[in-house]
């Protein structure tokens, strides 16, 4: 959700370019993190890691950037495990 300041809320009655850019950055960051989380929940860890990396580039602050780094690292750790466990499951089915 984008929040725009009313002219009376800003100094001089005008919305500054910096406020608009920051709002846009936050919206982009929210969209990227939402999509990354959706991919992560679906078990698409490699794709999710790439989305988290993009979200990190658009992070509006240090805390958001660190969160994106942590999620990306988790996805990269989970990616080989997910592929490995899937491969084991299919081998077990064919051996039975």
Overview of the molecule:
- This protein has 96 residues and is mostly helical.
- The protein is 75% helix and 0% strand.
- It contains 3 helices and no strands.
- The chain has helices spanning 17-41, 45-57, 62-95.
- Helix 2 packs antiparallel against helix 3.
- The chain is elongated.
- The N and C termini lie far apart (52 Å).
- It comes from Serratia ureilytica.
What is the count of helical runs?
A: 3
Strand coverage percent: under 5%
- Topology order in helix (H) and strand (E) letters: HHH
Rounded mean pLDDT is 78
Q: CATH class, anyone?
A: Mainly Alpha
Which word captures the global form?
elongated
CATH topology: Methane Monooxygenase Hydroxylase, Chain G, domain 1
Q: Give the tally of structural domains.
A: 1
Q: Gyration radius, to the nearest Å?
A: 20 Å
The CATH architecture can be given as Up-down Bundle
| Largest beta-sheet characterization | none
Protein name: ANR family transcriptional regulator
Organism: Serratia ureilytica
InterPro entries: ANR_neg_reg
């Amino acid at each position: 959700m984008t929040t725009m300041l009313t002219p009376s809320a800003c100094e001089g009655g005008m919305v500054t370019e910096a406020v608009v850019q920051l709002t846009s950055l936050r919206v982009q960051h929210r969209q990227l993190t939402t999509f990354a989380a959706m991919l992560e929940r679906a078990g698409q860890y490699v794709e999710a890691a790439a989305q988290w990396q993009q979200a990190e580039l658009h992070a509006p602050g240090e805390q958001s950037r660190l969160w994106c780094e942590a999620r990306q690292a988790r996805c990269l750790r989970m990616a080989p495990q997910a592929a490995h466990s899937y491969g084991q499951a299919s081998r077990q089915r064919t051996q039975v």
